[in-house]
Amino acid sequence: MDVLALIITTLTAILSPAGMVVDHLAEQAVRSQTTSIESIQVRIDNLPNYQILWGRVNQVKLSATGVYLRQLPDLRVERFNLESDPLDVDGAALRQGRLKLNQPAQAALQLQLKARDLNLFLASSAVQTWLNELQFSLSGFSLQREQRRYGLTHPVIEFLDGDRLRLSVDLQDHLSQVGIPITIDTGLEIVRGDRLRFINPVVKIEGIEAPSQLITSLAEGVSQEFSLRRLESLGLLLRVLSLKVNDNSLNLAVFARLEPTSPLLQKQSGE
Questions:
Q1: Which of 26, 197, 206, 262 could form a disulfide with 189 if both were Cys (CB 3.0 to 4.6 A apart)?
Q2: What's the pTM value of the predicted model, to 2 decimals?
Q3: Of 95, 152, 160, 81, which Cα lies nearest the Cα of 123?
Q4: How many CA atoms lie within 13 A of 185 on its CB side?
């Protein structure tokens, strides 16, 4: 995961023997985990300073704009802010490039995504490949042939006033090569911090409003599929504290907690 790689590289720089100017080193470490970044500010708060040598950091503050992470090079993050709680890590392990937590790591994140950047990402080959791998059936049959009959193409998102969005997509019939335009106009709400709920969704297929049963089924399916609770088995707790739509952008405030026993740490350290 890019965020874990970023944390490892940043903390390794902070705890390096030459780590006298830790803010500058941390900035260089963050830049190494991106393909492009327009501006960045990193601040390491630590009193007394010698605690860094033992792997204890009071707080890391990071603010960046125009961020492209290495594993998602087609997605631009307009703004990224991070403020950590005190960190307690194994300094010796970090100097070997491994992240080992003595205590859970917690941080508050703020993300801003612009509609124009999301649409460029949705038009990328990586997203289209993912859409091509989706399998579903309009008729409800479970046959593998039927599940592979339909695909989604040309997704476009638009953020509206009142925390609403409009998603337009073509439902492609691979047999007839006919594309059916679908639009979803809906409000957004976060339930218990881990699940997305559609508010008063309106689905139109070729300009005709879909039956309420189909809308309800779609909304419930999305809510179940994208629950953040699925990550808890990996020792990663994420909770969305707020979701706001304005100025054609999506703004998220997120709380993150990573457990010392998380298999993500072992995977990242072994890369």
A1: 197
A2: 0.76
A3: 152
A4: 10
